[in-house]
Amino acid sequence: MKIYTRILGIISFLVVLALIVVLVIYTIDEKEWLYSFLLLIPIYSLFHYLIITRLGFFKEEILDKKQGRSLLILSIISFVILIITPLILFQTSLALNKRFAEPIDWGKSITVYEINCDLTTRILDNRIEYIFNAKFGDERKLIKSFNITFYDSFGFYLFGLEIEDWTNIVDKDSKVIGISSKSSRSVYEIKKIYKNIDNYSVSITEY
Questions:
Q1: For a FRET experiment, which of 16, 18, 24, 199 has its CA 20 to 30 Å from that of 8?
Q2: How far is CA 113 from the centre of its chain?
């Protein structure tokens, strides 16, 4: 039995270390604070076991007052950590969501045929919302779609959007001088990608 408890104690200690490492490197994104909370439950349980059994190397003796007090304090600290950590993760998640919900104006981009484009985006409910406007130059082509490509600071491709639906902008003579599109798209792991966006470009697909 003693050998069994010692082996269990060592294994439990290694599991606790592994769980803590996973918790530290875990990316906070939306509801992942809840996963971290669930992860803390076995950490607390195993840590509590390690305290009581002294990593499994305990002797069958009655704890004195000093040992009992130390055990109580360590148990309380463990429980407090269990409560505080998910709250911190939750607040961090809320702050990230609030930051993502703020609209970002990505400035202008000029395509072929001197089409001047501007783009504003934000993230809501794991979807990227955008407002895209394009003003035509003197040469007008039949455009099937606008293709927006996002890049990081090194110029590497992140993801793209294809815009095929829009509202025409006309002048006083009912001549189409541009388009405007406002919509949203679902992009896989958009929150992880979005923070790396540095610039964008626009191309067109003609009929």
A1: 24
A2: 38
